[in-house]
Amino acid sequence: MSIDLEHVKQVMAEADCLFSQEQVEAAMASMATEINQALGDSNPIVYSVMNGGLIIAGQLLTRLDFPMEVGYLHATRYRNKLSGGELFWKAKAEHSLVGRTVLIIDDILDEGHTLAAIVEYCKDAGAEQVLTAVLLDKKHDRKAYPGMRADFTGLEVEDRYIFGFGLDYKGYWRNAAGIFALKGH
Ligand SMILES: O=P(O)(O)OC[C@H]1O[C@H](OP(=O)(O)OP(=O)(O)O)[C@H](O)[C@@H]1O
Ligand SMILES: Nc1nc2[nH]cnc2c(=O)[nH]1
């Protein structure tokens, strides 16, 4: 189904900017410092979770200063909708994960079902250690398990529908250079 581009532009015009590009970049710099300290000698495989992880992974990776292999996983459970459903795998790992340290990078930990399933998948595939990094952690009490957190988190975000910096509104605005919340959600 095609989408009305005027509506897409209106959504941005009415959105609330929660974090500017500068604030996101400062958060990424802090995450990079922590990750450089934690993983510098671990020869990790670093996976971006498509599609949302594309922007944060691209911008975080150039701030990491140690050798690593890089790839992507593609799992989705929102599929251009505003609420999540069953996780659908589109691409799994090309590398052998046996005995490896794996770092998963995604844009947001919302309810956490996506990240929990990806961590379980990597462990089942033989990874020795699986760490997670997310730009945003949404504040609410609906996590996949109580107290669920990523190992590295950039910013906490309020319980609204978010877009920008990799997160979409109906497939659009992943390119928005800031973190925005949809009016009324
Ligand atoms: O913590 P959860 O509630 O599981 O939600 C988080 C996931 O939702 C989004 O992906 P989505 O399924 O929208 O696919 P996309 O990355 O292609 O937009 C986001 O990129 C995370 O991967
Ligand atoms: N675009 C977008 N995708 C999500 N996936 C899980 N939570 C969100 C959200 O707030 N916005």
Strand order of the largest sheet: 4-3-2-5-6-7
How many discrete domains? 1
Strand content: 25-35%
What series of H and E elements makes up the topology? HEHEHEEEHEEEE
How is the main sheet built? 6 strands, mixed
Please, how many helices? 4
List of distinct ligands in this structure: 1-O-pyrophosphono-5-O-phosphono-alpha-D-ribofuranose, guanine
Helix-strand layout with pairing:
Elements: H1 5-14, E1 16-19, H2 21-39, E2 45-50, H3 53-61, E3 69-76, E4 88-91, E5 101-109, H4 113-124, E6 129-138, E7 152-157, E8 162-163, E9 179-181
Parallel strand pairs: 2-3, 2-5, 5-6, 6-7
Antiparallel strand pairs: 1-9, 3-4, 8-9
Helix pairs in contact: 2-3
Guanine is lined by residues 78, 108, 110, 161-163, 167-168.
Catalytic activity: IMP + diphosphate = hypoxanthine + 5-phospho-alpha-D-ribose 1-diphosphate; GMP + diphosphate = guanine + 5-phospho-alpha-D-ribose 1-diphosphate
Pfam families: Pribosyltran
Keywords: Glycosyltransferase, Transferase
Kindly describe this structure.
It is a single chain. The protein is of the alpha/beta class. The protein has a single domain (5-181), classed as Rossmann fold. It has four helices and nine strands. The protein has helices at 5-14, 21-39, 53-61, 113-124, and strands spanning 16-19, 45-50, 69-76, 88-91, 101-109, 129-138, 152-157, 162-163, 179-181. A six-stranded mixed β-sheet has the order 4-3-2-5-6-7. The chain has a three-stranded antiparallel β-sheet with strand order 1-9-8. The longest helix is centred in the N-terminal third of the chain and has 19 residues, at 21-39. It starts with a helix and ends with a strand. The model has no long low-confidence stretch (mean pLDDT 96). Bound molecules: 1-O-pyrophosphono-5-O-phosphono-alpha-D-ribofuranose (PRP) and guanine (GUN).
